[in-house]
Amino acid sequence: MSGEKTMRVPKLRFPEFRGAADWKERQIGEFLSESRLAGSKGNVAKKITVKLWGNGVFEKNDAIQGSINTQYFRRKAGQFIYSKLDFLNQAFGIIPPGLDNFESTVDLPCFDFAEGLSPVFLLEYVKRKDFYERLGETADGSRKARRIHAETFLSFPVALPVPAEQQKITDCLSSADELIAAQARKVDALKTHKKGLMQQLFPHEGETHPRLRFPEFQNAGKWESRKIGDMFSLTNGYAFKPEDWKPTGTPIIRIQNLNDPSAEFNYSQEPVPERNRVERGDLLFAWSGTLGSSFGARIWNGPSGVLNQHIFKVLMDERKIKLPFALLTLARVEDDIAKKSHGFKVSFVHVKKSDLVKVALALPSLAEQQRIADCLSSLDTLITAATQELDILKTHKKGLVQQLFPSAQEVAA
After folding, report:
1. Which residues contact 175 (CB under 8 A, 6 or more apart)?
2. 3-state class percentages of the chain: helix first, strand second, coil last, to nearest 5
3. What is the per-residue pLDDT across 206-258, written as a single tens digit (0 to 9) for each?
4. What is the percent of the chain with per-residue pLDDT over 70, rounded to a whole number?
5. DSSP state of 143
6. What does DSSP say about strands 157-160 and 283-286: parallel, antiparallel, or unpaired?
7. Domain-by-domain residue ranges, the chain?
8. For residue 214, which of 26, 372, 20 has the smallest C-alpha distance?
């Protein structure tokens, strides 16, 4: 076929294809054609969106209003869709059956498949960073393209085996996806169970007794209402400037270090007040950040260092409240703190110390605190183990993809 080029075979090949023909370089446009089925105009459209970093295709249900003259196009289940603006952020996918007949603008083009190319095979091929990032960055005359237009995408080269080998690869990777999805559901179920248990083990707002209590505390007294400012001392981190950051010295603990234990540190070589020093096991509270990740309480498990601003060092009287229970208590009120904060985004919250210290918490005896912490800690152990298994499965699939596809560097640009 004109323009066809023989490719080196991948590092890993199924036994029945080890003697088969080499993979061939083709253009994606030989197998895909852009769909332009006219749909609705304006806000009456059932909109579709593609989430970043390979997170898939979903209904668009945000409150952003478009122009009444904006033209939408009807999309079909099984079509390939991507974002012209966010191709380099891995915003592409296959439209699922539940979104059949949903619509998108020309900035989210869709494509029908011809025979000879499996949709799942193409998706796995394109999802690889050395494909979408390398080709995307050179799509505009070796400059990082701001938009990947449909004609550019269709001109991208793809290395293909025969359809039977494509199917074998997609079956293998689909099986891995099923295992990953099942393990992810297990992790989610454990987290949901823990959340529900916490709701039962702590009094509801305005109440002084939890709905669920361990037998030895059934007849114990009511929980005592205390404000965060009465139980904890909150010290903000030191206001370092970028010019204070050095390549060596004392580690500066920033938000990125709370989120990712492997994140690199900046360092300080100047004297810092003792109150800003942090040791392993200290309780910290990030008072500005993203809900579910950077915002909230956690126990520091890294090296000794100095605390950066936007994070409180939390001290307590352990004759009244124990560290594990303090962590649970602060984690439980994060949503309440977010509602009362001065955030400027739905997911990004910012809380003042003056607001935080006024939040009221219910406090049981030290013995009941320890019992609750031990129970929930055992669940945390199960969640951690299940999450590690999930990470192993994801790593295994990533390794399979690297072995089952030739490197994009082998494909002529």
Report:
1. none
2. 40, 20, 40
3. 889 999 999 999 999 899 999 999 999 999 999 998 888 899 999 999 988 98
4. 90
5. B
6. unpaired
7. 5-12+23-161, 224-363
8. 372
To the nearest 10 degrees (0 to 180), the angle between helices 163-201 and 119-127 is: 70
Farthest CA pair distance, the chain: 84
Distance of CA 128 to the CA centre of its chain: 17
As given in the structure block, the two tokens for residue 326 are 């303090």
Q: Report the CATH superfamily, name and number, of domain 224-363.
A: DNA methylase specificity domains (3.90.220.20)
pLDDT at 299 over 70: yes
Amino acid identity, position 100: D
Give all strands of the β-sheet with 305-307 in edge-to-edge order. 266-268, 250-253, 305-307, 277-278
The CATH classification number of 5-12+23-161 equals 3.90.220.20
What would the pLDDT profile of 305-324 be if each residue is shown by its tens digit?
Answer: 999 999 999 999 888 899 99
pLDDT at res. 209: 93
Helix H or strand E encompassing 129: helix 129-137
The CA distance from 107 to 82, in Å, is 8
pTM over 0.90: no
pLDDT exceeds cutoff 80 at 61: no
Residue pLDDT, tens place only, 104-159: 999 999 999 999 999 999 999 999 988 888 877 666 655 566 789 999 999 999 99
Mapped onto helix, strand or coil, the DSSP state of residue 54 is: coil
- Average pLDDT rounded to a whole number, residues 285-300: 85
Which residues, other chains included, contact 290 with Cβ-Cβ below 8 Å and sequence gap of 6+? 347, 348, 349
